[in-house]
Amino acid sequence: MFRILTLALLLAFSSSCAEEASSGSESGVEAGPAHAVCTLRGTRGNEGVQGSVRFTRQEGGVLIEAKVAGLSPGLHGFHIHEWGDVDCMDGKCAGGHFNPEGSNHGGPDGAVRHIGDMGNIEANKEGYGIYRRVDKRIQLSGPNGIIGRAVILHAGEDDLMSQPTGNAGARVAYGVIGIGKPKG
Ligand code: CU
Ligand code: ZN
After folding, report:
1. Beta strands, E only, the chain
2. Largest CA distance in the chain
3. Can 35 be counted among the known catalytic residues?
4. Is residue 184 part of a domain?
5. SS3 of residue 5 by DSSP
6. Surrounding residues of ion ligand 2, Cβ less than 5 A
7. Residues 127-174: pLDDT tens digits?
8. Is residue 8 scored above 70 in pLDDT?
9. Domain that holds residue 13
10. Are residue 68 and residue 3 in the same domain, yes or no?
11. I want to staple 94 with a disulfide (CB 3.0 to 4.6 A). Which of 71, 122, 124, 150 is the partner?
12. 75 and 134 belong to one structural domain
């Protein structure tokens, strides 16, 4: 009788442990920050450019929201570059496009792309541009994690094709991606 009771207790204990473990993974909560932010400032000769980018982890990807002022009208290549190093006037110290998978350059919705490829921001006649989309490949932490890297905005349009940069021209604004404040 005692042995049966002990066995029953052991079983009850182990099944409650299993329940806890599975409810943890079922909740789908990823480790690491859920928000990231980047303040953009103009490179040398482009001091009038300024903006901000917010990254929010959500169901199915990362929501990217950007606002930029002081641009020339039209499309401007918009990327995450490898290094969070902005200690240079031309933005080149941020390195090339963030590309942890060793892929070719492409558009953000293409099968082949750098993780850092976010396409273009379109500025209106007043030089103001906004951008809002959910990216399924970018992560805030982990192998495709962007925190600590740089956002770069270019003088020209990213054609989403030319290698390795989309031929987007000089870098007009840059900023380092940091951990964002949780909401609420
Ligand atoms: Cu770029
Ligand atoms: Zn690229």
Report:
1. 35-42, 50-58, 61-69, 74-81, 117-123, 129-135, 150-154, 171-179
2. 86
3. no
4. no
5. helix
6. 97, 105, 114, 117
7. 999 999 999 999 999 999 999 999 999 999 999 999 999 999 999 999
8. no
9. 1-29
10. no
11. 150
12. yes
